[in-house]
Amino acid sequence: MSDVIQLDGHIWHWCDMSYGQNKAQCLELQDSCRVNVNLLLLAHYLDITLDVAGPREYSVEQWQILVTAVSEWDDKFLTPYRRLRRLAKANLNQDEYQQMLDVELMIERKAQRIILNAINNLQPKGQQANLVSYLSLFGLAEGDVQQLGLITP
Fold first, then answer.
1. DSSP assignment of 30-75, as one string?
2. Contact 63, 137 (CB under 8 A)
3. 153 pLDDT exceeds 70?
4. What pTM does this model have?
């Protein structure tokens, strides 16, 4: 697999920064469309960073593979925990709530490892921007993607 572009964990530092700048858009897509924020930020990262090996555009089918790869983890752990955290918020002090956020972040990090393992087994073969390919899985078009106005850290 020498021709496959290997992505590693450093991208998640960039994604954390991007999430901080785009939190409202990310949460809106997560809550209204069930978009996976990790995949959303990864698609954005791939679209705006250059690689010496060439383009890293993944097809809609490849984005579906990534969704499938992480969906079991999300369905069993992340989504129920996030729901519990949101329900508990009104009954927790700030320190307790922050502890719950920290646990959720650990669960997100595991999801990120699952995504990296899956994407490192794919060879980019898309014909359009990754954000467009990924968000098309949720019925969003290129114009919707442009309206997001995601900021680059």
1. HHHH---HHHHHHHHHHHH---TT---PPPHHHHHHHHHHHHHHII
2. yes
3. no
4. 0.86
